[in-house]
Design goal:
Elements (H helix, E strand, L loop, with lengths): L3 E4 L38 H17 L3 E6 L2 E2 L3 E3 L5 E2 L1 H13 L2 E6 L5 H7 L4 E2 L13 E2 L4 E10 L14 E5 L3 H7 L3 H4 L4 E5 L2 H10 L4 E5 H8 L6 E3 L5 E5 L2 E2 L4 H16 L2 H8 L16
Parallel strand pairs: 1-11, 2-6, 2-7, 10-11, 10-12
Antiparallel strand pairs: 3-4, 4-5, 7-15, 8-15, 9-12, 9-13, 9-14
Length: about 300
Amino acid sequence: MKGDIMSFDKLNLDRRAFLRGSALLFAAPTVMGLAACGGSKPAETDSAATDDAAATDATEAAFDGNLIVGFDQEFPPYGYVDDEGEYAGFDLDLAKAVCDAKGWTYTPTPIDWDAKDAMLNSGQITCIWNGFTIEGREKDYAFTSAYMNNSNVIVVAADSDIKTLADLAGKNVVVQTDSGAQSVLEGDQAELTATFGALETIGEYNTAFMMLEQGTYDAIAVDYGVAAFNIAGKEDKFTILEEPLNGEHYGVGFALGNEALAAEVEAQMQALYADGTVAKIAEKYADQGLSMDNWCLPEA
């Protein structure tokens, strides 16, 4: 049966509520859009190259040392509001450490996930740094190399008869709008999705888990970390299928033309990994399922 995709965005729900902890290891992709290898370009491409260089110079000139970090404030352990009402999370602490090392101003800015591209391209934020999946977005952003591994999984009720991905045939599955899980289900796993009774989208995962418990949905497609965070202490209510939907990676996303700044941030993350700072930050969020086993950006 062909799955119908219906939007629940009209519920006007906030974005993601999540945690992460996949132990899958994958090779980190290279930085998108950095200097290419090879000889000089043919004469007919010189004008285009000059235009590209001018665009890059203009973008870089716009960076005044204030790193405005766009993040989803309901996405623990990467970015969220803590019990004291302060912005917290692994990605935010890492961004602040980069800024401190570079002498930049650190400005965390919560965003509406659906407006992230408009905010990035208008300069309202400098980057998107919040468990941001690279795969499927390579041509749309100037990414750092991947720094964390992730996977998308299926969560079902503990007493569900769904035990494998094949058992999702005819079932109602929900996924967050514009999430990595949605991209997988509409891309590499499209054949699986075609067997669903329906694939529905929702604004954030807190509500999805409540509705799964109520029986509104049969399954949730979600990042592993979100799943781990939401079912912690509720293993009698929810379970994660053993077979993941995919493996993917997180990177820091900048507007196209900002490749040099992305490379500068990447290099500083590598330095912070080398001196042990990254491990110290990760330890703060270990009880939320974050593990250095998933770090995949090596030293320079």
